[in-house]
């Protein structure tokens, strides 16, 4: 009896995930033919509360692409893979304290901020470099226009609040 309820609960959770994945996918299915441009997959995945690295994103795309890549991803291939990703809670966001420590490493004098120039240098020359588009998107959200710097504690708080909002409204 308890096993039946557990199975029904799991089945309900999977059905709910399928619904959320389909809804996110359909936003970018401009032809209404259950396909999306491969370049939109990262946006879809992030809208579902996942934060894969570029390498992880490329691996996931390789998993759902056709054997002969067409530039489009079909829902029937994306749905089971993304369901598994969400059930396994893969690509979770980085915790707030880890983000703070990372910014503090970049700010050895403990000013509490980085200049726009410092941020651009770190994000494009160190580690996994941001693309120009990613850099522009981050700068528009992160840089205080008056001081031309990022007060990273405020920025981290904003990122965490946005992520919590996404999780509350997209994936339970």
What is shown here, in short?
This protein has about 170 residues and is mainly α.
Fold topology:
Layout lengths: L1 H26 L7 E3 L3 H7 L6 H11 L7 E3 H13 L8 H11 L7 E2 H10 L6 H11 L6 E2 L1 H18 L3
Helix pairs in contact: 1-4, 5-8
Question: Can you characterise this structure?
Answer:
- The chain contains eight helices and four strands; from the N terminus they run H-E-H-H-E-H-H-E-H-H-E-H.
- It has helices at residues 2-27, 41-47, 54-64, 75-87, 96-106, 116-125, 132-142, 152-169; strands at 35-37, 72-74, 114-115, 149-150.
- The strands form two sheets. The protein has a two-stranded antiparallel ribbon with strand order 1-2. Strands 3-4 form a two-stranded antiparallel ribbon.
- The two termini are 25 Å apart.
- The model has no long low-confidence stretch (mean pLDDT 86).
The span between the termini is: 25 Å
Order of helices and strands: HEHHEHHEHHEH
Total strand segments: 4
Give the strand order of the largest sheet, numbering strands 1, 2, ... along the chain: 1-2
- Taken as a percent bin, the fraction of beta residues is 5-15%
- Report low-confidence residues grouped into runs of 5 or more: none
Radius of gyration, rounded?
A: 19 Å
How would a crystallographer describe the biggest sheet?
2 strands, antiparallel
Mean pLDDT: 86
Which structural traits does this protein have?
mainly alpha, 4 strands
């Amino acid at each position: 009896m308890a096993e039946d309820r557990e199975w029904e609960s799991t089945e309900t959770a999977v059905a709910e995930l399928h619904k959320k994945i389909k809804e996110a996918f359909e936003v970018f299915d401009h032809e209404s033919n259950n396909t999306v441009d491969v370049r939109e997959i990262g946006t879809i995945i992030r809208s579902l509360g996942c934060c894969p690295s570029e390498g992880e994103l490329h691996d996931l795309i390789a998993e759902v692409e056709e054997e002969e890549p067409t530039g489009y991803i079909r829902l029937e291939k994306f749905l089971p893979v993304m369901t598994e990703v969400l059930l396994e809670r893969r690509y979770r966001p980085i915790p707030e304290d880890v983000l703070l420590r990372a910014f503090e490493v970049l700010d050895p004098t403990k000013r509490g901020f980085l200049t726009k120039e410092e941020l651009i240098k770190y994000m494009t020359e160190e580690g996994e470099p941001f693309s120009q588009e990613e850099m522009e998107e981050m700068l528009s959200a992160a840089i205080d226009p008056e001081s031309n710097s990022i007060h990273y504690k405020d920025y981290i708080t904003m990122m965490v609040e946005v992520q919590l909002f996404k999780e509350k409204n997209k994936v339970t």
